[in-house]
Amino acid sequence: MTDSVVEEIPADTLSLLDGTEEARYGDFGIPAAVLAEMTHRCPLQCPYCSNPVELERAGDELTTEEWKRVMTELADLGVLQFHFSGGEPMVRKDLPELVRHAREVGLYTNLITSAVMMTEEKVKELADAGLDHVQISFQGAEGTAADLIAGFKGGHEKKLAAAKMVRDAGLPLTVNAVMHRQNLDQLPEIIEMAVAIGAARLEVANVQYYGWALKNRAALMPTVEQLDATTRIVEDARERLKGTLVIDYVIPDYYAERPKRCMGGWGRQFFNISPAGKVLPCHAAETITDLEFDSVKGNKSIEWIWQNSDAFQKYRGTGWMPEPCKSCDFREVDWGGCRCQAYALTGDAGNTDPACSLSPMHDKIFKLAETEAVTDDRDFKYRNYANARTFTAAE
Ligand code: SF4
Ligand code: SF4
Question: Are the beta carbons of 334 and 323 closer than 8 angstroms?
Answer without folding.
Answer: no
